[in-house]
Write a structure and sequence with these properties.
two-stranded antiparallel ribbon; 18 helices; mainly alpha; single chain; globular; 77% helix; Hydantoin permease
């Protein structure tokens, strides 16, 4: 990524988070919303991303102001022991995303190679992506930013081509797709996707030149990139009954170009996952360097991509929301509303009261998922969790165990 001594500007963050959003996984997730139809699906995508990306940007502002990583910021509300637990949970999430990215890209690559050269071997494709990611990590960060920018621009241009192919079909607004999806469920998927990057954003915004770059730049980059990927996936699934962009790429004869774009976009995005997994791991212990940790994570993700079916992709996204929505509800309330002594809070061992509120928030999340509210689960759960934390703050604050 970027040299950590550099101060990153507004457009750097726009492009960084736009690049993180431009991926096959985002397109496939947009395709899950297709049963709602294009008009309603589009509205849910925009509403959900507005909610999720706003929360995402607030996490980035905390990182910029305090010059700390995302997992270090959780010490403000939960203490150092709390940050260790959330670092472990974040590492597990990032391993999961690594596996999802490798599996989805390997499926697309296998489709392309089968069509072009009659080569049909998913395992080889997954091992190829895993090995390429490992090589990317092993060779370090030299030149990665430029290659990432090229890959992102190529994939974005491709999505514009796909958009032209898809939207020129006048039947898009009237076609229906079989399947089950509610408005609340669609909004929740659109909220959870940016929320999944919330435990990573401060790893980068701590190096921002100013708060506008950290907050607004990150918001615009991710909102535009992710919403557009969702829309491409939604429209693809409605028109072709298949949200995998590789099928459409082959239909418009992009061939080898499609293969290169899928590979580059996957590796550059997956690199961000394993890079931040290394940062989270080093929040727990400094015994291993980030490169070694990244290689281990890439290996684990590759194995999981091969052996785990991952049919229930929505459950994975909801699990992320259940953990990190109430976590950051507590943190955002502590930081922006209560505004207690941050330096004193960071020196805590653990705040048991904050943990209790967080656990209540996790339980509430799954209750609200079953309620299937039209606004989704994340927003009401974060509001209720934040209010509970604010109301109980005087009592909760007495439960902290301060480092001697």
């Amino acid at each position: 990524m970027n040299k950590t001594n550099d101060k990153l500007g507004f457009f750097t963050f726009v492009f960084l988070w736009f690049g993180a959003a431009v991926s096959i996984a985002e397109i496939l997730t947009g395709g899950l919303i297709a049963p709602l139809g294009f008009k309603i699906g589009l509205a849910t995508i925009l509403i959900g991303h507005l909610i999720g990306t706003t929360i995402f940007a607030l996490g980035g502002i905390i990182g910029y102001r305090e010059k700390i990583t995302a997992m270090e910021s959780t010490k403000i509300a939960f203490g150092s022991y709390g940050s260790y637990l959330f670092s472990v949970l974040n590492i597990l999430q990032l391993i999961g995303w690594t596996a999802v990215m490798i599996k989805s890209s390997a499926t697309s690559i296998n489709l392309i190679t089968k069509s072009l050269w009659n080569v049909d071997n998913f395992i080889v494709c997954a091992l190829f992506i895993g090995l390429l990611t490992a090589l990317w990590i092993a060779f370090g960060k030299v030149g990665i930013e430029k290659i990432n920018n090229i890959a992102v621009m190529l994939l974005f241009i491709l999505t514009l081509i796909l958009g032209f192919v898809i939207f020129k079909d006048g039947s898009l607004l009237n076609k229906t797709v079989e399947g089950q999806m509610t408005i609340g469920g669609a909004i929740e998927l659109s909220v959870v996707m940016p929320l999944s990057w919330l435990p990573l954003i401060a790893d980068y915004t701590r190096f921002a030149k100013n708060e506008k770059s950290a907050g607004v730049g990150s918001f615009l980059g991710y909102f535009i990139g992710s919403a557009w990927m969702f829309i491409i996936g939604l429209a693809s699934a409605i028109i072709s009954q298949n949200s995998d962009p590789s099928a459409i790429m082959l239909a418009v004869n992009l061939g080898v170009t499609a293969l290169l774009i899928v590979v580059l976009s996957t590796v550059t995005t997956t690199f961000m996952d394993v890079y931040s997994a290394g940062i989270s791991f080093r929040n727990i212990t400094k015994k291993l360097d980030e490169k070694t940790i990244g290689l281990i994570m890439a290996g684990i993700g590759t194995v999981l991509a091969i052996v785990v079916q991952m049919e229930n992709y929505e459950s994975f996204l909801y699990a992320i929301g259940s953990v990190f929505a109430p976590l950051f509800a507590v943190l955002i309330t502590e930081y922006f509303i209560i505004k207690s002594d941050i330096k004193a809070k960071i020196n805590m061992k653990i705040n048991l009261g904050a943990f209790l509120v967080w656990v209540m928030g996790v339980v509430l999340y799954y209750v609200f998922i079953k309620f299937d509210l039209i606004i989704g689960a994340t927003l009401p759960v974060m509001i209720i969790t934040g209010v509970l934390y604010k109301i109980s703050w005087e009592v909760v604050n007495k439960w902290k165990l301060v480092r001697e």
